[in-house]
Write a structure and sequence with these properties.
Distance between the termini: 34 Å
Helix content: 55-70%
Largest sheet: 3 strands, antiparallel
Low-confidence stretches: 107-116
Order of helices and strands: HHEHHEEH
Number of domains: 1
Oligomer: single chain
CATH topology: Arc Repressor Mutant, subunit A
Structural class: alpha+beta
Mean pLDDT: 86
CATH architecture: Orthogonal Bundle
Strand order of the largest sheet: 1-3-2
CATH class: Mainly Alpha
Shape: elongated
Strand content: 15-25%
Radius of gyration: 17 Å
């Protein structure tokens, strides 16, 4: 069972192990660039909460913060770095390998869902 143990160990404490960071990076992998307030709305989080996670992801080199001007005034844009895209894909593949190792969705048709 070393493979599963190794995968779980790799997940523990990973920068993408928080739902907001993972969701933001998945959004950026899909779009590559998004305006900060649009990201906050899309993720359903307050700007202060998002900013906390953005700073951590920037420190880790997974995203870039860009300031720019639009017709609506100054805006802050978030962009995935190449490293950010690679790391997000690697993390999702790791999650997938854990699910696959456990047999996927076998036996989950109605168990634990409150059906009677």
């Amino acid at each position: 069972m070393g493979g599963i143990d190794d995968a779980l160990r790799a997940l523990r404490g990973h920068v993408l192990s928080t739902p907001v960071r993972l969701a933001l990076m998945l959004l950026l992998v899909n779009r590559r660039r998004i305006e900060f307030s649009s990201a906050a709305r899309a993720l359903g989080v307050k700007p202060g909460t998002l900013w906390h996670h953005v700073e951590r992801l920037e420190r880790e080199g997974l995203l870039r913060i860009r300031k720019g001007f639009t017709l609506h005034g100054p805006r802050t844009f978030l962009e995935a770095t190449e490293e950010g895209v690679r790391e997000t894909v690697r993390y999702v593949q790791l999650l997938h390998s854990l699910i696959s190792a456990g047999g996927g969705m076998q036996g989950s048709s109605s168990e634990g869902r409150g059906s009677r």
